[in-house]
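Hi support team,

I'm filing this because I wasn't sure whether my run with flavin-adenine dinucleotide finished correctly. The job status page said complete, but I'd like someone to confirm that the output block is well-formed before I use it downstream. Pasting the exact inputs I used:
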Amino acid sequence: MKKPRIIIIGGGLAGLTSAIHLSRENFKVVLFEKDGYPKHKVCGEYISAEIIPYMESLGVDLEDLKPKKIHQLLFSTQSGEKTTAKLPLGGLGISRFALDEFLVQKVIQNGVEVIQEQVSSAEFIDENFQVETQSGDKHEADVVLGAFGKRSVLDKELNRDFIQQKSSWLAVKAHYQHENFPKDLVALHNFKG
Ligand SMILES: Cc1cc2nc3c(=O)[nH]c(=O)nc-3n(C[C@H](O)[C@H](O)[C@H](O)COP(=O)(O)OP(=O)(O)OC[C@H]3O[C@@H](n4cnc5c(N)ncnc54)[C@H](O)[C@@H]3O)c2cc1C
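And here is everything the job wrote out:
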């Protein structure tokens, strides 16, 4: 039986790992990502060690990125009170700038076609998916995987309820160098507002 042709919309962690997984199973995969690589992403950049066996099963060795090994958590409240805890399983500190680029290179090595374009619609017509990009190009697939994160133009296109609501959350990311900050610590700080 002919293997289905798969289109993945979105090249974040879900899209990239799915592309590696499916290409290893010899599926024909095309991945669309609206932004170029490498790219920064608002993220705490803490990866739980529980995902390491899965990444190894995909032939991805995160040690190649020389991650920081994290074993401690610090949590602070708005008033500045702090508590710390050991993280028994622990995790890795890796920037998304490095991680997403590392994964997309694996995706390309595995023969996946990566197209830098924003997908504007995906419709199921006559037992087939028709995927259209912002530039008007049309692509067909047997299966479409929506890995476009949250609050994508596709959520608007699909009339999802949550997209009508305003979000009260704001995230800001910056990288700092701090000589005295322990290298094995992840810290969560809470601020008013
Ligand atoms: C502030 C913050 C901190 C976080 N910190 C951590 C952390 O420390 N550790 C952790 O494990 N998780 C963390 N997370 C969660 C983590 O970022 C998400 O779980 C993860 O990014 C989800 O991956 P994803 O691939 O589903 O979506 P995303 O990573 O959002 O990827 C979606 C991709 O789809 C692309 N896309 C969207 N629409 C289209 C379109 N129409 N056409 C083409 N491409 C499109 C986007 O450009 C994007 O690259 C954090 C999240 C936030 C908000």
